[in-house]
Amino acid sequence: MSPGGWVYNLASFSLKDRRLLDQRRYYDAGVRARAGKLIREVAPKALAREKPGPKRDLLDAIANDQVPGNAHGSFRPFSRMTFARYGTQFELRTGTQTLAMCYDRSAVAKALKAAAGPRADFARAELALDESRFADAATLLGRCLQAASPDDLDFRAAVNQELHRVWLSISRTAIRQARPANEVASAQELYRRSSTVGQEVQALLALAEAYERNGAPANAARCLRSVVRYYARRPYRVPALARQAPAPIAKAASSALDAAAGKVHREFFTEPAARGIELLRASLPLYLSTVSPLPRTLTIEAGPLATQRLLALMGRQREFAAACREQARAALARAAPEERLELVRQFPGTSAAAQAMADLFTEAGKATGLERRRKLWHLGEIAAMTGTPLPQAHRAETLFRAGPRTRRPLRMPMKDRAVSFEDPKGGLRMVLARRGDLATRPELLFVGGRVKKRLDNKFEVACVDAQAGRKLWVTRNIRLKGKGQEPGFTEALARGPVVVVHGFYDVLALSLADGTVRWQYTAPFDFEIAHATAAGDLLVLSGASHTIALYVPTESRTGEVVWTAPEAGEPYAPPYAQGERLISVRHLPSGVTVRRIGTGRLIGRLELPELSRFARHPLIKGGPEALPVAKSGDRLFVTDGWYYIAVDTTRMRVAWKRLIEANDPTREPPMRLTAGEGVLLALKQDYRAPAMVALDAATGRRLWRSDPENDAIAKPMHSVVISAGRIYGLTPGTGRSFNVHAIDASTGRELAKWSARETYETKPAVELFGEAFGGTLVARVQDGQTFELIALGGKTCRPLHTITCKGVGPWDLPGRVSATGQAGRLMLMDATRLVIGGK
After folding, report:
1. Of 90, 305, 406, 816, which has the most beta carbons under 10 Å away?
2. Would you kindly state where each structural domain of the chain is located, as residue ranges?
3. For residue range 691-704, what is the model confidence (pLDDT) as tens digits?
């Protein structure tokens, strides 16, 4: 349809919406948003191109119109409940987002003057607390405890909970006023009134800070060692600033306050502005302290936090550090072997602790098998926590090394060879994608299959030498735990002498030499494998509520579990390894969890806004569904539908947030995120029109965005791949074709384009493999019952080689058509034949 006809239809729709708004029949935000876009954007642009006539008059009327507002606001349910207390009326109001209590404070205070007893004192304390009279509230609550019956446990617990709030506020006041003695006293009371483990840990950490400010570093260290000794593995919620170095934060905040003070007018408001700035400056230590009022969005373990603060304390207090070294030497000399590891965490940074760690590494080296690796991984965790260097002899076994990040380039020219999988019984097979360690026997590829009878649940794995083009072995009659719903094997992970495959509930390790089953692990009753991640000698399984790590080189026939950890939320994206860290994204509730790979110990869990679960494709109607999440280096990118959110997984903080532009407020936007080489690319919808936005991954600064009126900037593309400073993607072609584009990642300008000829029988469904093979892209195409793998040159986007087969879609299902690429080769498999394209 012509642009004029499109605008005319929208204009007619706008007039209908305006009539409904004028008649006040309803006030829908989506209608107002669409009408506003027509009035402010669409109609003025069409008016500039339209010739004089009735249509121009109509567009002129629309452009000069205004969208009526909603004078009544959004409808939200509301309820209230009234009751009488202290001779006055109370009203409890509950709404969708609020909870409030309304009452006459003066009437309540007047009624309490004549009242006596602990209940009346408790009510008076609540009024004092609400008026920030913390000392009076503490006195009244203390009187409540003295007068209350010892058997009234509920009332005494409520008083202690309120006392904890009061002493927390008093402690914050002492920090703001820079009164260390008062801070120590309030922190001691805070510890006495703690009723949960988290409150006890907070009180001990606050007491350590107070003792240090009061000139008693030995007492501060004693509090921190108590946390290490008794609460080492306890989860503890802290503000995100607690993981950052306080000195740069304080310096940046002070500089910002100095800049604000320099902008105050010299004649007007000088004194109140200066007083306000000084109060803010005095509050800086509070926001960097343990009792900070900032929201606690980060969950960490209390032991590593206390050990980190012990190290910092020794760095600031030299005399105390010397005494601590002597104390560590004496404590470790008389400690039993099983006590030394705990004492090392209590005396970090000392020579005695370093020597004890060296001895522990030597003892761990005497063990064998999984016991040896467990000890080394645990010692490596303690060494990282205490700042102790790893012995060179055990470094390779202790650390996890990342494998190659890029796949081998495809070697041209290619020659196709076929391997037959004819089966008179009609087995269903598919070629398995290689994950994890790609350097182990890269010439081997694997084919998974199952018998045609779905309820029989028998499966098989075949190994093929891609270089020679022949089968090496086939392992048949593998039984799995699932009953009918088990799809079978979808990926293969080679490590050392075995290849690991898994289903929903079972993990098997097969010998690379002959395919014999080395071990088979069956998941617990309520555990279903959602994702499997290879990390060195470990295979990490993610489920709905737990994470399990298996030891791949085990000799046990049933497999060996290295560690298991409970998780909060369901898997949102496949977890991945980054050095010594395992990073996973979960939702309901949403958050990013980071663990030590070797031990499963929690490094941190950062809470995030509720992440988008809208998986619809933003460009292709009925296209493949996926959640908007991407990663690149130490950055993880997600969205809640309102903001782009970049998470720094190393520092466990939100690096930046950016409001999503041109967002329809009435519905969640369909979106795809792709990241790489310092660029975050977002494919979304601006209301109903597709758009593409490129952001700087480090800062969130916008680099460029698509513009329908600017032909120099690339149009929105799907199936995006970022490689070598270029962004590759696909756009639908005219008729039965498609286009492949290469654009500059920093400017969005098109560098190369290739258009497929209209030789397809239907509109082809095309997508690119998620990564480049060196300088080559791979596209897979479905045209009815014809399937293709096309290797495309990265510089020109032109085809270099094509593999074709017949079959039935969709892709990557047993018995249908499947494809993968590895070791410089492409593999395409139909129901009975595997085609290998390679040098």
Report:
1. 305
2. 3-63, 81-105, 115-195, 215-264+281-316, 327-398
3. 999 999 999 999 99
